[in-house]
Amino acid sequence: MTDAPASPPASESPRLSARLDENDLPWPLRPWLLAAVGTLAGLIFYGLVDRDYGVGPAPLRDALAAFVAVATVVFLLGVERRRWHWAAGFALAWGAVIGLIAWHAAGYNVGGSPFEWPFWSGILAVLVATPLFQTRRDVAPDWRFWRLWQMPYARLHSHAWADAVIGAAGLAFVGITFLLIVLIGQMFKLIGIDLIERLLNGEWFGWMLAGAAFGGSVGLLRERDRLVATLQRLVMIVLAVLAPVLAAALVLFLLSLIGTGLTPLWESGFSTAALMMAAAAFAVLLANAAVGNGRDERAGNRLLHVAAAALVAAVLPLAAIAFYSMYLRVVQYGWTPERIWGVIAAAIALAYGAAGLWSVVRGRHDFDELLRPLQQKLAIGLMLLATILALPVLDFGAISTRDQLARLTSGAVKADKFDWAAMAFDFGPAGRRALEALEKSPQKERAGLAKIALKAKYRGEAPQSDPRRGDDAVVAAKPIEDKLRVLPAGAALAPDAYAAIDESGYCLSQPCIAYRIDDDHIVVARLGDHVTLFERVAVTRQWRQYDEHPPSLAPATLGTAVDLAKATVEVRPVARRQLFVNGKPLGDNFP
């Protein structure tokens, strides 16, 4: 079903306008207006992101910056003279949604970055929603947007491809503009005029120039959308030529798995799920390029049409492999936000694969006639799902925290292999609350590791789940009394000496030797070539650590292969010679 045109045909366009839809009036001022909008948005965006990042996160400014960026890009891509206020409202609404998502994401984890998985899910929703809006704007007699499934597929498909082509061309134009301005600036610099170079060195000018270039280029291309349609068709033809190549490769790959099984996929060292999802995405892209907007645009070459059917049918087994790969990861290592997103993506691919296979089996040569309306419904469902998942409705961090804690409590994962860094930096408030509870655990190892993870200012400081760092994490979590081998045999250290060594952090992640010289001097050594001296200050009776090696304690090269728990350790008197001037030592000692 197709709705009637929303407005009467426009008068004949002037020469500089070549509109594809006769209902769209020419808009000669569009490039200048969009360039002005892009320029103003670039300046506002710069004002929001220009700050000293050392002072800490600024979620509100990040949210406002995301609002400006998304609202501007959506408006530039989607505005028409006809119903321009619809485009403005649509852009502002989605800008507000993405701003809310960015604000929540920026305050979710310790780093304060808005670019978390919900943010990218929101961007996906915007990308899918924009051609849906454009199509509904073109054909709707009113604002009843819930009738999205009744829109003409050919126009929807055309808008999606046109947005991609125009967006890519706009970005390319921005790059060319910067290169041109740099060239002009260097030319003038040769004769002593460096104004343009100084402007380019200012970030404010760069953002304004980028906004103006993108807006102006989009406006120019929209006024010549017949040319864009030709370019779009050319891109689709080029991609369609690649369809038989990918189809043959996927068929051979899937047939090979019958003989090899899936085991080599898990042993390859690559992310099987990511690779299968990427292959499925390319299969969908090339299949749509081959079948076109409708029967009239279907590839006339029989080989291309068969290849498109093979690509559509191959999506389901690829998605099944990706889903099974994610299932194995979850069984082996438990849930994390990243794996939840991966399972959802694989489930979406499974839905598309099932629809595609059904279309091929049921429709055969005319499979694309059945697939197109299904793709439209899937696109609407994807937009709604991506929006819901992006909003702070479901807390994937809390789900992951409960699962990982259950694995730790049950003994499925040991404390030294537990992903403390993910708990502190990836699971949001729920993960940090769990660490605070574990910090009070009667099990010293867990409590120590949780304490280190909570104190970590960046991910590298937290105990990692990487087995190569497991020993360091265990040592770091131990009390200082368990890290020190006190010599000579039978000697003991006072509690304040232990506290001074622990506070210094000298033995944080490595076992150490503490050799007691007398009541006021302790020599401490660790693996490597560093030796330090702890000395009790006579007046305050508090311990202090020398920052440099005292002259009487030359560095000892221990090496990393020495077992300090069993090594023979002793203190020997060493004769040395040194130059003295007026009774004061000068320079280093020598043989």
From TrEMBL:
It comes from the Bacteria. Pfam families: DUF4153 (PF13687). InterPro entries: DUF4153 (IPR025291). Keywords: Membrane, Transmembrane, Transmembrane helix. The chain crosses the membrane at residues 29-48, 60-79, 86-105, 117-134, 160-184, 204-222, 234-258, 270-291, 303-327, 339-358, 378-399. This is DUF4153 domain-containing protein. It comes from Sphingopyxis lindanitolerans.
